[in-house]
Specification:
InterPro entries: ATPase_P-typ_cation-transptr_N, ATPase_P-typ_cyto_dom_N, ATPase_P-typ_TM_dom_sf, ATPase_P-typ_transduc_dom_A_sf, ATPase_P-type_domA, HAD-like_sf, HAD_sf, P-type_TPase_V. With 1134 residues, the protein is of the alpha+beta class. Helices cover 39% and strands 20% of the residues. It has 6 domains: 125 residues, no CATH class; 64 residues, no CATH class; 124 residues, Calcium-transporting ATPase, cytoplasmic transduction domain A; 284 residues, Calcium-transporting ATPase, transmembrane domain; 167 residues, Calcium-transporting ATPase, cytoplasmic domain N (3-Layer(aba) Sandwich), CATH 3.40.1110; 145 residues, Rossmann fold, CATH 3.40.50.1000. Strands 24, 25, 26, 29, 30, 31, 32, 33, 34 and 35 form a 10-stranded antiparallel beta sheet that branches. Strands 22-37-41-40-38-39-44-45 form an 8-stranded mixed beta sheet. A hairpin with a 2-residue loop joins β8 and β9. α8 packs antiparallel against α9, α13 packs parallel to α27 and α15 packs antiparallel against α27. The radius of gyration is 36 Å and the shape is globular. The N terminus and C terminus are likely disordered.
């Protein structure tokens, strides 16, 4: 949906804010368009090309600003710092082609849902709708609100009652046709782009246009062979790019096309249940779900029955998920708000697979279509691939600034050429333009991607896949890792299960399942056997590992037999197995499930004993949550103490509860969770051991040694999470843990926050900022965000454990701010994160960081090399140009193709260093280290080039025309023909100055390629790059055979190159890359990091009152300010 704003380019211009973009209205004017056409002709198409690159300029030139209501063209601008523009044409949807009974409608509404935005978008009596399409999503013009609204989804304002009442009986055929025409087909259509379009778009890339301009100048100067070689390479590069884009287009098309023509059953008011193709579905249709292995072609909300689905494509976890019907609540709040954060348990997402359906008492499972096409969950994944978000990374911004700086140097060369023209009185206009292009190597943008391509290939070999390659470089700057779940660090369930049941309101002795004795029959056994969401697929029980281990501990078996029960929405039967304890029941039927929710921290089931009319409700979940639903007299007095005993040891603790249920099976479908989950009797605790995975501790130790913070964000118990963090050394033994407990305001008492040293810590933490760690649960985090926001950054500096976090809290804390995310999944792509690892443990984390660092360092090295390569060529050309000479055709050919191309392709092949360094590589190009490196190497190059230029003239054998007896020279006849008179490749390229400076410049390029290919600590040593080494070592000696100079002069050139290498290597490796030296310099000059994290660290280190301990602070007047109650003291030091 869009909201109004008052920003624009001129008075009276309306600007509306799309989700990530702003929109401006424009109207085409014929006079302006005619003037632009004249400009296209006069500029020979240059103006048209400029408008192609800058669509905003095209709109501003051809159109006049106007309101969105009058606009026939809109201009969209992203709201991020990149401010990218796109233009979209306003089109019309004509509904008059449909046979509509408008006169039969008393209220004149064509859509039965009066709140639908479609009703407000239809112009009457024309029956037309204005719309635009942005990134595959259609927006229609709301006449009354004067805004564009997204179409293709049901309105979120519908309540649970509305969904059932308005759409439960299906849509009429007329309404389906209207919605189908306005919303478009329910299809994720990916066009296989024609080769000519891809070729045209690639050729018009600024990089290739600049290269075409450059090659035109080279050809006019007679560099035909060189230009032909570059043209061939460009054709190969364009062909490979077009082929790759075409393959991606075909692959993506094939991936989604098979789901665009799925046969589904839909229910309509006019025709009842009928089979149709999925692309005819519209929001509001009712799907009839029967059978197994159904692929969802849309997003739909379940209104009848239940389903078990595989959401691996969305979550990255191929664990069956139970979906329940949307309740018949009669309140007016939106259905998503009614379901709080757990609305997803009612939604079937597009791209997921229905494993099993459960009919209700009123017939098969049914669902109302929520979203179609690219509005769906799968559509979002495809759109994220088609329209990736631009990465806000300093490397690319600094690269642009660097290129601008090189262009300025080119302009200086242009001025220098003008001076030569005035002094020599020679026409050098073409050469002036040629000199303008020399400092800016056109290969810079392409070369920056080579390191990413190689890194992505290496990650793929390690079973780590990526759908956003640009994030690989960003991974090289990661200094904090959040682990989403304890099970990523520990095995949640092992063979050690224990129960701690009740007897006379006190805990009995623990029953250990490893003893071999079966669990005695009773409510605890019944709860463990029935309160789960396991499914039976192909004869095998599948589901959450916790549920699976719990069920196996009872030695019961699970059956699927409809004859066993006449329950309304389920036919799940469980019976005692041969190894189970004797039970006075034949079996238990699970009649109804309230699935587990991370937001609610519990699940419940309603069961019936086979052959009896006795109904029971069982609940399991977080102990503190389950206890809150139990009658106080059933909860033991030592509940908190007993719970702490197990959680302090790192056990996973689940509470069980029960109550008899008097509800008849006929009314189970209408049960509301809040009605039945009350007044339970507490049964006991189920204790499971969390053993660390074998790979966990070494990985966390490696991250800690590399000074990369590890943070745990989990839904588990706080004490359990802290214990796992300690066992895995996420929290070192020497560090102290401070528990934070924040509470909402209660009456006149303001919100409070309590700081308490964790039990077991006998001394208060040191004032060192690294000596303490904060731990809190999700409720406390929410209170801090709301009432103590000024404390939040201070807490996050040392926050390590965040437990009982809901999905939205996880998103607020980490997901929205994350630069990269890894999903552990067997699939190669997941909408959950840009990286997917098929390695089922956290070993992928350091692997990704290593490759990110190697790719980042390689990108810097290639960029520095190309920058110096352009400047070296520029300086050499300036010197020769003073004598109206330039390098020869084959000299440029060897330098550009044989050396630079090979270096750029092979420099990034060096693998990542196996050990993570305790610091990150530099993340910005415009830094003192890099600028000094470039400047000093330019100085070295300038010195040797100037020295060679002037010294060669002092040699006794020097002459303006080279002697053909000196090496690989041309014949004397050809030498005389090439006497330097004019600036032309066939007439002035052969001279002793050129054959002296060319090897110096060429070998210097090889030297800097070797020097910049730094190995440890982020990449392996250069000698492990078996392809790049021969290039950098052999070529200098081969080039010596191409010089038209005496042998002794060639020896002097090699000695000069050797000295240059030694100086460059010492300066680069021992000075510029000497981290200790730079730290000392920073300390002497008082330089401090400007990052917010480091600022807070320094600020807290100077604060003698931080961290707070054994006290409670209160929010003051609801202003996110705090004051300390000096009278509050804990009774004892812990």
């Amino acid at each position: 949906m869009v909201s109004k704003g008052q920003r624009g380019r001129s008075p009276g211009l309306q600007c509306l804010l799309f989700d990530p973009q702003e929109i401006f209205g424009y109207k085409t004017q014929c006079s302006r368009k005619a003037l632009c056409i004249v400009g296209y002709i006069l500029s020979c198409g240059v103006l048209l090309l400029l408008f192609y690159w800058k669509p905003a300029w095209d709109v501003w030139a051809n159109c006049a600003p106007c309101s969105l209501q009058e606009a026939d063209l809109v201009l969209l601008r992203t709201t991020d710092e990149f401010q990218r523009y796109t233009r979209k044409k306003v089109t019309w949807i004509d509904l008059s082609t449909l046979t509509l009974s408008v006169s039969d409608k008393p209220d004149g509404l064509l859509i039965a849902d009066k709140d639908s935005s479609i009703n407000r978008a239809i112009m009457k009596p024309e029956l037309k709708v204005r719309c635009i399409q942005v990134q595959k999503i259609r927006y229609i013009w709301d006449i009354s609100a004067k805004q564009f609204h997204k179409v293709g989804s049901l309105e979120d304002s519908n309540s649970c009652y509305d969904v059932h009442q308005k759409f439960g009986a299906g849509l009429t055929r007329e309404e389906q046709n209207i919605r189908r025409l306005v919303c478009g087909p329910n299809a994720i259509e990916i066009e296989i782009r024609p080769i000519w379009k891809l070729l045209f778009k690639e050729i018009l890339n600024p990089f290739y246009v600049f290269q075409a301009f450059t090659l035109t100048l080279w050809i006019t100067q007679g560099y035909v062979e060189y230009s032909v070689a570059i043209i061939i390479l460009s054709i190969i590069s364009i062909s490979l790019t077009v082929f790759d884009l075409r393959q991606q287009s075909v692959k993506l098309h094939n991936l989604v096309e098979e789901h665009n023509r799925v046969q589904v059953k839909a229910f309509t008011k006019d025709e009842g249940c009928k089979t149709l193709e999925s692309h005819f579905l519209v929001p509001g249709d009712v799907l009839v779900l029967e059978g197994k292995k159904l692929s969802l072609p849309c997003d739909a909300v379940l209104i009848d029955g239940g389903c078990i689905v595989n959401e691996g494509m969305l979550t990255g976890e191929s664990i069956p998920v139970t979906k329940t019907a949307l309740p018949h609540a009669e309140n007016t709040m939106p259905w998503k708000t009614h379901s709080v954060e757990d609305y997803r348990r009612h939604v079937l997402f597009c791209g997921t697979e229905i494993i099993q359906t459960k009919p209700s008492g009123r017939g098969p499972a049914r669902a109302v279509v929520l979203q179609t096409g690219f509005n769906t969950a799968k559509g979002d994944l495809v759109r994220s691939i088609l329209y990736p978000k631009p990465m806000n990374f300093k490397l690319y911004r600094d690269a642009f600034k660097f290129i601008v700086g090189l262009a300025v140097i080119g302009v200086l060369g242009l001025i220098y050429t003008a001076c030569v023209y005035a002094y020599r009185k020679v026409n050098t206009i073409t050469m002036a333009l040629l000199l303008l292009t020399v400092p800016v190597p056109p290969a810079i943008p392409a070369a920056l991607t080579t390191a990413i391509v190689y890194a992505q290939r290496r990650l793929k070999h390690k079973k780590i896949f990526c759908i956003s390659p640009q994030r690989i470089n960003i991974c090289g700057q990661i200094n904090l890792v959040c682990f989403d779940k304890v099970r990523n660090v520990a095995r949640r369930i092992t063979s050690d299960l224990h129960t701690d049941p009740l007897a006379l309101l006190s805990f009995q002795n623990v029953h250990s399942f490893t003893s071999g004795a079966p669990l005695p029959w009773g409510p605890v056994c019944a709860a463990m056997a029935s309160c789960h969401s396991l499914v039976l697929l192909d004869g095998k029980i599948q589901g959450d590992p916790l549920d699976l281990k719990m069920f196996e501990g009872t030695n019961w078996v699970r059956l699927e037999d409809p004859s066993e029960t006449e329950g309304p929405d389920s036919c799940i039967v469980i019976k005692p197995g041969p190894n189970a304890s004797n039970a006075p029941v034949e079996g238990i039927v699970i009649l109804h499930q309230f699935p587990f929710s991370s937001a609610l921290q519990r699940m419940s089931v309603v069961t019936q004993e086979v052959g009896k009319n006795q109904y029971d409700l069982y609940m399991k979940g977080a102990p503190e949550m389950v206890a809150s639903f139990c009658r106080p007299e059933t909860v033991p007095a030592d509940f908190v103490k007993e719970l702490k005993v197990y959680t302090m040891q790192g056990f996973r603790v689940i509470a069980l509860a029960h109550k008899p249920c008097l509800q008849s099976p006929c009314g189970l479908f209408f049960l509301l969770r809040e009605d039945v989950e009350s007044g339970l009797a507490f049964l006991g605790l189920l204790i499971m051991e969390n053993r660390l995975k074998r790979e966990t501790k070494p990985v966390l130790e490696e991250l800690n040694a590399a000074r990369i913070r590890s943070v745990m964000v989990t839904g588990d118990n706080l004490q359990t999470a802290v214990t796992v963090a300690k066992n895995s050394e996420m929290i070192p033994e020497s560090s102290q843990v401070i528990l934070i407990d924040a509470k909402e305001p209660d009456g006149s008492t303001p919100a409070s926050i309590t700081w308490q040293l964790m039990e077991g810590s006998k001394t208060p933490p040191d004032r060192d900022v690294h000596s303490h760690h904060f731990a809190m649960n999700g409720k406390s985090y929410q209170v801090i965000v709301k009432h103590f926001s000024s404390l939040l950054p201070k807490i996050l500096v040392n926050g390590t454990v965040f437990a009982r976090m809901s999905p939205s809290q996880k998103s607020s804390l980490a997901l929205k701010a994350a630069h990269a995310g890894i999903s552990l999944s067997e699939q190669e792509a997941s909408v959950a994160s840009p990286f997917t690892s098929q390695i089922p443990n956290i070993e992928c984390v350091p692997e990704l960081i290593r490759e990110g660092r190697a790719a980042l360092v390689a990108s810097f090295a290639v960029f520095k090399y190309l920058t110096l390569y352009g400047l070296i060529q520029f300086i050499g050309t300036l010197l020769l140009f003073w004598q109206l000479q330039i390098f020869g055709n084959y000299q440029y050919l060897i330098e550009d193709v044989v050396i630079t191309l090979l270096v750029c392709l092979t420099m990034s092949l060096t693998h990542a260093y196996p050990k993570l360094a305790p610091y990150r590589p530099p993340g910005q190009l415009i830094s003192p280290t890099l600028l000094l490196s470039v400047v000093l190497n330019v100085c070295f190059t300038t010195t040797i080039l100037f020295g060679g230029f002037f010294l060669v003239k002092q040699q006794p054998w020097y002459s303006e025309t080279p002697d053909p007896r000196h090496g690989a020279c041309c014949s004397s006849r050809e030498g005389e023909r090439r006497r330097p008179r004019l600036l032309h490749a066939t007439e002035s390229v052969l001279s002793y100055e050129g054959t002296t400076m060319w090897p110096l410049a060429t070998i210097n390029c090889i030297i800097i390629a070797f020097v910049f290919s730094k190995g440890k600590p982020f990449r392996k040593p250069i000698y492990t790059n078996y392809i790049c080494n021969p290039v950098t070592c052999v070529l200098p000696f081969l080039f010596q055979q191409l010089l038209c100079t005496p042998t002794m002069w060639r020896v002097y050139i090699l000695i000069t190159a050797l000295v240059t290498f030694c100086v460059s290597f010492v300066v680069e490796d021992l000075i510029l890359q000497n981290r200790l030296l730079w730290l000392l310099i920073k300390k002497c000059f008082g330089f401090r990091s400007k990052s917010q994290y480091r600022k807070w660290q320094r600020k807290l280190a100077m604060d003698p009152t931080w961290p707070p301990l054994q006290r409670t602070d209160f929010a003051e007047n609801g202003k996110n300010e705090i004051y300390t109650n000096p009278a509050y003291e804990h009774g004892e030091e812990k």
